[in-house]
Amino acid sequence: MNELITYFPYMIKNTIIELRYNLKQYVWWLLFNLSIIFLSVFLMNLFSPTETDKSRLLFQLSGYLLFFWVAGALYFSSSILSRRGFILNITSLPLYVLINVQIINFLLQFMMSFVFLLVIALTNHIHMTPSTLGVFYFLVLTYLILIPVGLILSLLKYYSRNMKRNMILILTVLMISVSILWVPTQLPALAIKVLSLNPFYFLVNGFQSSVVLGQVAFYNIPLHLLFFCELVLLYIWTFYFYKKLKDEINKK
């Protein structure tokens, strides 16, 4: 905890520096998200949508925004060591600080895009019963899982020469496996149970449900317990992998 407090100012400082030096890139990503939202709602309104159609689109767009935060944070985290210098960051500076910089930057984009989505939903009279507690709960869980996953992916850069290509493949599979291009009611119950083993499906679907359906996502207690077990194991494995790789590099 003391280490976290010590490096917190450093993390904030580097977040500001990252935004300042890559502002154009982040603005383009933000405009891309806003365009996706606007065009999706505009095209939907051309076909006299029902209330169900409107709610389904809001469900999918909210999931897309959360996935964008996840994908952006993980993709750029995977290239941190090649851009910043592996030895310096793994032995002198906590790598999780640099990972958090990417997570926070894409979280800011997510928040601005999500506010825009809510404004569009309200102006188009899209029915929703959002749960503020649920939204906050799933955002916190997403943040917590991005840290170890981002660390693992950045460390894998040490072993993989094709990390960029691998990341694109991983994120593509991840996008297909979460409820963005489809909704859970379109799949068999068995398929949903299998997908629920994926912690990112749990997060995206839970966030979507909290935005559109209120507190429905809290009813399935076993899925929450499963996620927390996966999260704990992920942190344990990440700590072991990080320590082992750090010792390996120091020997060199």
TrEMBL record:
Signal peptide: none annotated. The chain crosses the membrane at residues 26-47, 59-81, 93-122, 134-156, 168-196, 216-242. It comes from the Bacteria. This is Uncharacterized protein. GO terms for biological process: lipopolysaccharide transport. The keyword GTP-binding does not apply. Coiled coil: none annotated. Keywords: Membrane, Transmembrane, Transmembrane helix, Transport. Belongs to the ABC-2 integral membrane protein family.
